[in-house]
Amino acid sequence: MELGKGLFFRQLFEPVSSTYTYLLADEKSREAVLIDPVLETVERDLKLLEELGFNLKVAVNTHCHADHITGSGLLKNRLHGMKSAISRHSGAQADIQLSEGDKIHFGKQHLLVRETPGHTNGCVTLVTGDQSMAFTGDALLIRGCGRTDFQQGCSRKLYESVHQKVFTLPLQCLVYPGHDYKGQTASTVGEEKRFNPRLTKSVEEFVDIMVNLNLPKPAQIDRAIPANLADGLHEV
After folding, report:
1. CATH among 3.40.50.300, 2.60.40.10, 3.60.15.10, 3.30.420.10 for 4-212
2. What is the DSSP track for 57-101?
3. Which superkingdom does the taxonomy of this entry point to (predicted)?
4. What is the sign of the dihedral through the CA atoms of 44, 7, 72 and 149?
5. HSE-up (13 A, CA, CB side) for residue 139
6. What number of other Cβ atoms are within 10 A of residue 235's Cβ?
7. Tens digits of per-residue pLDDT, 86-114?
């Protein structure tokens, strides 16, 4: 998809963990950013980059994932000069340690970092320069949100993060989550403010909902977290 102002955008999917990877590129300079790459789909992503003639500058993880191993480390080994990025609060290794207000530049485009902890301490939402798109990782999902029962999770912090850092964006801003398990691909800030069954509640109701989710442990957590703390390269 070629969007306005020379921005290329492509949404990609990894079916085992239901993870979305996002490719954004500046049409003129051909510089690109990859959000939340997955180890098992690195070859797919490399082929697409080559076919489209993009130069991947940064692979950024929205947080230290527990359900899959990031592809950022392997991508660095394959692409000279590419850098990895993650929140400085994540405790994970990366070339670029991100903080609130940082900008990830690619050509004339950029992504603005908004810290949105709660699912983990190191969650960030990445917003395009014109605020038309927000990549929310696991903080805000379509009609849902990330769990808060492990990895420094805190329901109150997540509620505050989404309301202060995501719901303050323009209503028409497109929301692109880290995962979806029901075949949905995108939402908007306005939709989620109206229809999200968890985050439209009071903070006390939200905390009660999150405490009682009783979700199973992610299948890959025992191998994913150690690997992702090492930029995806631990025993891979």
Report:
1. 3.60.15.10
2. EEEE-SS--SSS-BSHHHHHHHSTT-EEEEETTS----SEEE-TT
3. Eukaryota
4. negative
5. 34
6. 8
7. 999 999 999 999 999 999 999 999 999 99
Residue position matching structure tokens 């959000």: 35
Task: Say how many CA atoms lie within 13 Å of 2 toward its Cβ.
Answer: 6
* Digit-coded pLDDT (tens) for 60-84: 999 999 999 999 999 999 999 999 9
- pLDDT (average), residues 11-27: 97
The whole-chain average pLDDT of the chain stands at 96
Q: Which two tokens stand for residue 135?
A: 């990549």
Show the tokens assigned to 171: 């209503």
Domain map (residue ranges) of the chain: 4-212
- Cβ-contact 100, 113 below 8 angstroms: yes
**Alpha-carbon distances, residue 189 vs 9, 154, 194 (angstroms):** 19, 22, 9
Identity of residue 109: Q
State the residue for tokens 């949404």: 11
**Residue 3: what pLDDT?**
61
pTM above 0.85, yes or no: yes
Could you tell me the two tokens for 15?
């079916």
